[in-house]
């Protein structure tokens, strides 16, 4: 089921990764009269998706009881982590306060959800508060399974060549300190990604390119060896992009090892152990690495009975229809953002296109109506290849979907694409949070 009317178009990219100036005009659909209701709506998670949805729902509903549940007082602008870990932004570039983004008329419960009972329609928080809902939107992002990386703990980040860009703004800054040291001193860098689904699958590649770029800029490229160990047979989920990255890695002297999954690390010996498709272990030493752990739906989701039973069984993503984002078994439950069990779309740019779909279906359902609004899998990733250069990769469930065909070529390393990541993306992300994009 698709509806052209709602597919991201040229505006797809403008909506998140660029064109911030245009956002003042609000590119979203014209707002109809508010729907009067006493519905109790609970949103789990006040990250990119949950906050944007809360801001949009208050504009569509009159009298609804909207509660958003999130135990983290800080809101993290995660696309900034790569820039922090490249020494281009300070750690506080990505940090704001969750409560600042929430509109009047929405109640924040500043606790994590610990239990969901979709039959009884309740959410129980870690502190024991029970919230009854008529409609539930799950948007708690994903959980980084650090414990699954044997031999590692977060306390190691920032020394002995260990980085962890994903772990948060402070860890991203510590990773920069190690990358800066490594690209001055030289040695061997080994990068990798987990075999699970992950948010921003371009980020591990970006960081590999950036490390190579810094070594070159410092005149130390001949002192540095760089390898990328990849769990599958392709470096990216979209074949033409995978091929382009493979070529660029070749041009830049970055070695690859394919079908290798990290099993454990030994920081004392500075050794990473990977397992190949036949179960054979391979060791490699390293002087610098960026640990990216397996990624799964948060525990509260995996225990709720809302996950797919026959797909991603070790990861637990929410079982939703990939076009409507409505739960397949509980029609009053939706998912958006990273937790949604859809084939593409774990980026903030995806959340930007998922949120209006959930909003429309939820409001229509409350009004006793239907809508043909659909999400087509739109995902975007400004794939940084050097400081000052990026490829603007955009795709949906089926194809590459460039926002500016003939103007910005998706597979070319361009300064304009870099600017969109480095300058425009944050303003557009913030506009999304406010429900204005
Ligand atoms: C290094 C890096 C680089 C990235 N680069 C890009 C990029 O260039 N472009 C792009 O579009 N995207 C990028 N992303 C991805 C993007 O940040 C995420 O896809 C996006 O934030 C997902 O939004 P979300 O709302 O699903 O999750 P989040 O924004 O992660 O928010 C989830 C929220 O849920 C809360 N939560 C968790 N558990 C619970 C619970 N039990 N109860 C209640 N609340 C809970 C959390 O505290 C958090 O506030 C990047 C991510 C990383 C890590």
From TrEMBL:
Q: Name one GO molecular function term.
A: FAD binding
- GO BP field: sulfide oxidation, using sulfide:quinone oxidoreductase
Q: Which Pfam families does this entry report, sorted A to Z?
A: Pyr_redox_2
Instruction: Outline the extent of the FAD/NAD(P)-binding domain.
Output: 40-142
Record protein name field: Sulfide:quinone oxidoreductase
Organism of origin is Lutimaribacter pacificus
